[in-house]
Amino acid sequence: MKPARFVDRFADAKARADLLTIAQDEGLHHRGSGPNRCECPGCRNGDVRGASLSERDGIDLWHCFRDDTHGGSALDFLMHARGISMQDALVELERIVGIDPTAPSKPPPPRRAVPPPRQPPPPGEVLALWNLCKPLGLVPEIAEAWAARSLDVSMIEDRDLARALPRGTPSPRWAFGAGQPWSAGERRLIVPLYDHQGRLASLHARAATAEDGLAKGLSPMDHTVAGLVMADVLGRLLLAGRATATRDLLVAEGVPDFLTWATHWGDAAENAPAIFGIIAGSWTEGLASRVPDGVRVLLATHIDDAGEKYAGWIAHTLRGRCRALRWHPREAA
């Protein structure tokens, strides 16, 4: 165990010391009419007034009226009385008040345990739930709800960008929100989230319309989405490092915008960008490192303060390796 630090030793000694006791230990006799007067520790001049010892605002003070010597603590008093160093004065102060200076300091309080960083859900459970989901065309009420938002449901299904979770499907413990499983209510569109290597890592549930008291989107409970994105086929190839040519990358915010952009270009389009979809907290430095140098990054985050801030963060993580441009729907026309 380490010895006590100087400041801790002094604080302990000061709590037990008063200057009059120290003065008497030094053989400085009481002088004057006041109860806290003694001979000056420096000059011992015999002046009847002596030195004044007092405490003000929790600080010990002493003052010699003849030669105007003074100090602010018991250590100053001992240093002046004996002509010794501060370290030696502390040892003397500990002796006077009965403290063993060789005693070890008290052990520091235990540090609060830092919880491990959250991880995505178990891969086996993610794949199992994804395989229980159905193509949108097999769950008409889900397909109709998203078609009403002007989305091409058949293209979403063909490109496997999202699936429908049939009502009542057994859900793992992380696929819950507000006490209900994802397979309850209208929150049954499921989109896959991919890691920085393009592998299926998690899922996100999204309702087509708002439900009373419930958020439209739900990520796995007690698990992270940091470093995970929605991605179309080209986006997954980019993450896996298998993009055959330098392409544009369009980064959309939220499930509806991701699905809108991921179905905007037809299969015959030669210059279609790779598409990422992000949700709150998902974009990380690690994801940015997967974007090849020179790729033009089109930032299609929401047109509001939060969206502008998110776009700025993404551009910052690219460190100037890529040309980051703010992108608006009219620019794709």
Topology (SSEs and partners):
Blueprint: H1 6-14, H2 19-25, E1 37-38, E2 51-56, E3 59-64, E4 70-71, H3 74-82, H4 86-97, H5 123-132, H6 140-147, H7 153-158, E5 163-164, E6 176-177, E7 180-181, E8 189-194, E9 200-206, E10 217-218, E11 230-231, H8 233-239, E12 249-253, H9 255-262, E13 274-278, H10 285-289, E14 296-300, H11 305-317, E15 323-326
Parallel strand pairs: 12-13, 12-14, 14-15
Antiparallel strand pairs: 1-2, 2-3, 3-4, 5-8, 6-7, 8-9, 9-10, 11-13
Question: Number of DSSP strands?
Answer: 15
Q: How many helices in DSSP terms?
A: 11
Radius of gyration: 36 Å
Please state roughly what percent of the residues sit in beta strands, choosing from under 5%, 5-15%, 15-25%, 25-35%, 35-45% or over 45%: 15-25%
Helix- and strand-based class?
A: alpha+beta
Biggest beta-sheet profile: 5 strands, mixed
How would you portray this structure in words?
The protein is of the alpha+beta class and 333 residues long. It has two domains: 6-97, DNA Primase, Chain A (Alpha-Beta Complex), CATH 3.90.580; 123-332, no CATH class. The protein has eleven helices and 15 strands. The chain has helices at 6-14, 19-25, 74-82, 86-97, 123-132, 140-147, 153-158, 233-239, 255-262, 285-289, 305-317; strands spanning 37-38, 51-56, 59-64, 70-71, 163-164, 176-177, 180-181, 189-194, 200-206, 217-218, 230-231, 249-253, 274-278, 296-300, 323-326. The strands form four sheets. A five-stranded mixed beta sheet has the order 11-13-12-14-15. A four-stranded antiparallel beta sheet has the order 1-2-3-4, covered by helices on one side. α1 packs across α4 (86-97) and α3 packs across α4 (86-97). The chain is elongated and about 100 Å long. The two termini are 71 Å apart. Residues 55-59 have low confidence and may be disordered.
